[in-house]
Amino acid sequence: MVATRLAIKHQSQVDPSKNASKSKSSTTKITNAKDSNSIVKLDNHKVITEVKQKMNELLSRLTSSSSTICPSQIARGLNKDHPARYPDWRAMMDPVRDIVWGEVRKGTVEVTQGGEVRTLEEREGLKGPIRVRRGEKWNSG
Q1: Which among 79, 62, 75, 37 has a CA at the least distance from the CA of 140?
Q2: Residue 106: enclosing H or E segment and its boundaries?
Q3: What is the CA radius of gyration of the chain?
Q4: CA angle centred on 53, ends 60 and 114, rounded to 5°
């Protein structure tokens, strides 16, 4: 995944001296382009799992099926729960959005903007804040 403000690369791409076939764990290097000193090495699978868990936790608390959360709530929640692993919640925003759109593809969540449901095809053209709500295939477990 590559985004404009955040570059995520597997460790083998970041450090060419490391042979990817010898690496036993899949690590991810996350760098905020605005602050190159903000570097965190994370296990890619763990990041995805924790983002999905936090998203499910927040969506499960909603009382109405039309209620929404902001993707930043997911990133800020991870920062609050695991400050050493996620020291900069802003640096997590693009990975969080990527994971949210992956869940849109599955139908478990919907993305809204201005109260209107947005499709995966509209993703690249969207400007401004988005919200997330439970989708048709939502399962709180």
Answers
A1: 62
A2: helix 93-106
A3: 16
A4: 60
Token pair in block for residue 120: 């995966």
Give me the residue label for tokens 């404009």: 4
Is 1 part of a structural domain of the chain?
Answer: no
Q: Which pair of tokens denotes residue 119? A: 């499709």
Q: How many CB atoms lie within 10 A of CB 87?
A: 13
Residue 81: count of CB within 10 angstroms of its CB: 13
* CA–CA separation, 39 and 70 (whole Å): 24
> At 26, is the secondary structure helix, strand, or coil?
coil
CATH of residue 75? 1.10.10.10
Cα→Cα distances 124→67, 120, 133, Å: 24, 8, 19
| pLDDT tens digits along 75-118 | 999 999 999 989 999 999 999 999 999 999 999 999 999 999 99
